[in-house]
Write a structure and sequence with these properties.
327 residues, alpha+beta, Structural Genomics Hypothetical 15.5 Kd Protein In mrcA-pckA Intergenic Region, Chain A, Pseudouridine synthase, 9-stranded mixed β-sheet, 4-stranded antiparallel β-sheet, 9 helices, elongated
């Protein structure tokens, strides 16, 4: 009996102990596993090593530096911010001198550096040989003694239609010739050879202010040919009177040639004049009591309307530019 009881107690104790032991081991394993998991999670999420990694985040490697070292996303972003800040500081309304020269169309930046070193460039009257020198757009820059502008010089020929006016400086008007030239995308355009709203024909446009001022000088002898339609038949004696010369506002006006247009009507006249004064053709015909109904400039300084439809423009050829500069 005592053995049985002891055995029972022993077995019971053993089973109880087994269950407790098993439960304890299982619990310990779960606890250990839980602690391990939490530990790993904590290590991953809350305790970054700060070393570059190929995974996402600021420490992700996005490239290599020139020295071959890995570059993280954070380092790349910081570098770009620094570059942007530097550019903003430099943007003070100035431009590098070699870029100024290159923009003028004279040569490349690399060649401009050579000319600067050689002393071929002056800024506000003083020679500059310093590399990286910056100038303002308002500075006077000369290359080999000639004024230059920080943009390529361009020359465009327009066949002006009716209904558009060439406004004088400060004048406001609707439908101007500048509206027709807007699609060219060229800043600081100046026109040569003003025409009224109802007149048609050739006008020259350029961002070369020096050339524009020269060609617009009223004392410059520049060839212009017009075809005009008058309000009535033109008498031969009136034609001869203009051909022999008239005085407008007390000043004699020389007409190079005037005649009836071949195969045209008696009121259609061709006239060649080299004066640069505004409205000079209208003034000549008004002096002999005729009114111009249509005025068409067909030649301007040797430039013609060939293959240039009304309302369109084209760029001048290199030879045409050379010819203009020789006037």
């Amino acid at each position: 009996m005592s053995r049985g009881n002891e055995g029972a107690r022993g077995k019971g104790t053993g089973r109880q102990g087994g269950k407790d032991s098993s439960s304890s081991k299982g619990g310990n394993r779960r606890n250990a596993g839980s602690n391990d998991y939490k530990g790993k999670s904590s290590s991953r999420g809350n305790a970054p090593t700060g070393r570059p990694t190929t995974r996402g985040g600021k420490n992700q490697i996005v490239g290599t530096s020139r020295s071959g070292n890995p570059v993280t996303k954070k380092e790349y972003i910081n570098r770009k911010k620094s570059e942007t800040s530097t550019k903003k500081k430099v943007d003070d309304g100035t431009i590098r001198l070699n870029k100024y020269i290159s923009n003028s169309g004279i040569c490349s930046r690399r060649d401009a550096d050579i000319y600067i070193k050689a002393g071929s460039v002056t800024v506000n009257g003083k020679p500059v040989t310093e590399m990286g020198y910056r100038v303002k757009l308002t500075d006077e820059v000369k290359f080999d003694g000639q004024n230059i502008q920080p943009y390529k010089k361009q020359y465009l020929l327009l066949n002006k239609p009716k209904g558009f006016i060439a406004p004088r400086k400060g004048e406001r008007a609707s439908k101007t010739v500048m509206d027709l030239m807007q699609s060219a995308g060229i800043a600081n355009l100046h026109y040569v050879g003003r025409l009224g709203r109802q007149s048609v024909g050739l006008m020259l446009f350029t961002n070369d202010l020096e050339m524009a001022n020269k060609l617009n000088n009223p004392n410059l002898e520049m060839r212009k040919i017009y075809q005009v339609a008058l309000d009535r038949s033109f008498k031969h004696e009136d034609l001869m009177q203009i051909r022999n010369g008239l005085s407008i506002n007390g000043e004699p006006v020389h007409v190079h040639e005037i005649n009836y247009i071949e195969n045209g009507r008696n009121n259609e006249i061709g006239i060649e004049i080299h004066s640069g004064k505004d409205n000079i053709v209208q003034s000549l015909f008004e002096a002999v009591n005729y009114e111009i109904k249509v005025l068409d400039r067909v030649i301007l300084g040797g430039l013609t309307k060939k293959d240039l439809p009304r309302g369109h423009y084209r760029s001048l050829t290199e030879q045409e530019i050379i010819n203009l500069k020789m006037i």
